[in-house]
Amino acid sequence: MRTDQSRIRRVILVAVVLVLAASGTTLGLLLTQSSTPVAQVAQLASVQTACKQWLSTNPGQPGTVQWCSEMSDWMSRYMDRYGMGPQMMWGDPNHMLSTCERWMAETPPSGSKTTSRVWCGSMVAWMSAHIGSWSGHDNWGDWMTHGPMMG
């Protein structure tokens, strides 16, 4: 009888240790992986803000602020689907231009009567010229290395 109780205690102790180890490992993985998506969300918000500011200062441009939301939503889904990081999506003006054009080609915004080259080119040119107003940094490289995506 005594040995049965000892075995039961050992089994319970082993089970508790395994559950704690699995919980610790899972928590560690979640904490490690969660830092990137939060940072990406912050930087996507900056891109969306820049797009909206560009449209508000250029009322003659085709499109609406809804396009800015659609573009950033598409970027988020694209990064999740293909495992791309911010550097490849908008790491510099050329990447931002390519990403915007890809968005317009794959999922044209509602009511679009402009070419992706014209719309995206104008937006990226404005973003580059006015980076301080929407990012709080002096240049694109500074925004990417010290902006909201870096915490």
Structural account:
This protein is mainly alpha-helical and 151 residues long. It has one domain (36-150). It has helices at 2-57, 65-82, 86-90, 93-106, 116-129, 131-135, 140-146. It is elongated and about 85 Å long. The termini are far apart. 25% of the residues are buried. Residues 17-36 have low confidence and may be disordered.
Please write out the topology:
Blueprint: H1 2-57, H2 65-82, H3 86-90, H4 93-106, H5 116-129, H6 131-135, H7 140-146
Helix pairs in contact: 1-2, 4-5
Helix content: over 70%
Question: Helix- and strand-based class?
Answer: mainly alpha
The share of residues in extended strands comes to under 5%
* Rg value: 24 Å
Low-confidence stretches: 17-36
Please provide the count of β strands. Answer: 0
Distance between the termini: 59 Å
Supply database-style keywords.
151 residues, mainly alpha, 79% helix, elongated
Short description:
The chain is mostly helical and 151 residues long. It is built from 7 helices and no strands.
